Amino acid sequence: MSRTPRPIPDPAPGTRHRTSAGRRGIVRAAVATVVGLATLAMPMATAAAAHSDTRTRGFGKADLQQRLDDIVGLDGVVGAEGTLVDGGQRTHARSGTAELGTDRPVPHQGHFRMGSNTKTFVSTVILQLVEERRMRLDDTVERWLPGLVEGNGNDGNRITVRQLLNHTAGLPDYVSHVPALLGAEAFQQHRYDAFTPRRLVALAMRDRPLFEPGARFGYSNTGYVLAGLIIERVTGNAWDEEVRARITEPLRLRNTYSSGRRFGLPEPHARGYQQFEPGGRLVNSTRLSMTWGDSAGDLVTTSHDLARFWQGLLGGKLLAPKSLAEMKKTVPVPVEGRAVNEHAGLGVFWRELSCGVGSWGHGGTTLGHLNANAFTAKGERGAIVLRSTNLARGDRDARTDALIDAALCAKR
Questions:
Q1: How far is CA 293 from CA 92, 146, 164, 190, 325, in A?
Q2: Pairing state of beta strands 299-301 and 282-284?
C-alpha cells in the first residue's frame, strides 16, 4: 500500500487549514471533557523511539497484555480489552475489572458502545446506494431533506452528501447543546433525555457554519445525522435497518446493533465510567439514552464483530472496488502542534504510523467508552482497543494510541 493516500483537490487553494474545535471533542468549552462523538480517537503517531523494539520482533499476546495492564494501572482506566488481527487469526486479552469496587474481570467479548465508528457503517450504506444509482455523492442536502438545513447562514443547497461524509460541509456540531454532555451533575439530570434526528439538526442550526462548504476539514456529528436521514429518505427505511440488512446480517455481526431507545447493554458487558473533568471522580455512565448519538454514533458491538467489519469492508466484501476507492479519496486533517500525517475519507481516516506504515480506521468515544482501532491496506492486519473508561484529558489516551501503533509496526 502506498504510504500517501489519494487526496482530492482542496476546494480552497491557499486557505490555511486549521483544526476545528470539534476535532478533539472541544466543540465548546462546556463539552471539552466529553471527547465522545466529536473525537476521531484514531491511533496517534507517537515518537518512533517509543516503539523501536516492536519493529525487530513480533507483537503477541504477552505484549498486548502488558500494554493493557499499563493502560489500566498507570492511566486509571477501570477495564480494557484488546484484539490483534492477523488474517483469520485473533489474539485477545483483557485487563482490569468489569466494575469499580469488585474483582469481577472484564468479560470476554463484552458488548460495547463503539461511538463514532458508527459513521463508517453509515458511509458504507450511502456508497452502496450510490452504487445502485439511487442517489449521488454530489447531490445536495436540500435535494433529499428540503428546508432542514437553513438559518444562521446554514444552507443545504450548498452542501453535498460527499461533504457530509468527509467533514468538509462546515456544519456546526449539535453536541454542545446536549445537556447530558455538559458535566457530571447535568449528566445525572439528563442521562435519559430522548432526541429525534431532526431535533439534533435543529440544535445545530442555532449556530453559524464553521466555514464555507468545501473550504476545509471540520469534524461535525451533524453531517452524519443528516446522512442517516438521507438514507431513510432514499430507501424508506431507518438508517439502522439498512445497516442491519446490508452490513451486519451479510457479515454475520450478531452482536452489532443500534442502541435505539435502549438505556442499557446486554450481558455480558463491563460498566462504563465517564470522567467529566481532569482529576474528577468516575461517574457510572452505563445506563443512558444514546438517541443523542443516532447515526453519528449509537451502535453497540463486540471487538470480534468490529474486527470482522473492518476486514470485510477493506477486503471488498461490502463495496465494489470503485466505491471503496471513492471512500478512500481523502482530504487533509490538520493537527496543530503534533507531527501527524492524517487524512479523512468518507467515513474512514488514513493515518501514517510511527514506522511509516499507513493505516485505516475510525475510532470513537462516548460517555464511558473508548474505541481505538486501525487496519492496514486490505484489512490483513489490525488492532482494536476497547476501554470502559473515558478520561477527561485526551493526553491520557497516549498509551492506548501507542499500543495500536506498536502492534501494526511490529515485525510479522
A1: 28, 22, 16, 14, 28
A2: unpaired
Q: Which residues pair with 7 in a beta bridge?
A: 330
Q: Whole-number mean pLDDT of the chain? A: 88
Q: Which amino acid is at 210?
A: L
The pLDDT tens digits for 88-121 are: 999 999 999 999 999 999 999 999 999 999 999 9
Buried b / exposed e across 247-272, counting CB within 10 Å, b at 16+? bbeebebebbbbbeeeeebeeebbbb
- Using alpha carbons, list the distances in angstroms from residue 248 to 131, 165, 349: 19, 20, 21
Written as nine digits, the cell of 57 is 520482533
CA angle 182/95/299 to nearest 5° reads 45
pLDDT number for residue 322: 98
CA distance 161 to 130: 11
- Residues 395 and 102: their CA atoms lie apart, in Å, by 27
| Measured CA angle at 369 (ends 99, 223), to 5 deg | 160
Alpha helices for 117-196 (secondary structure H): 118-131, 141-144, 161-165, 184-190
Contact 135, 327 (CB under 8 A): no
Phi, psi of 391, deg, nearest 5: -85, 155
Rg value, the chain, Cα: 20
Give the rounded distance of the alpha carbon of 136 from its chain centre. 24
What CA–CA distances, in Å, run from 320 to 161, 274, 344, 347?
19, 39, 20, 16
Q: Indicate whether this model's pTM tops 0.85.
A: yes
Alpha-helix runs per DSSP H in 166-302? 184-190, 197-204, 222-235, 239-243
Record the cell numbers describing residue 269, joined without a space: 458487558
**Sequential DSSP letters for 368-390:** TEEEEEEE-TTTSEEEEEEESEE
Nearest to 2 by CA among 326, 403, 328: 328
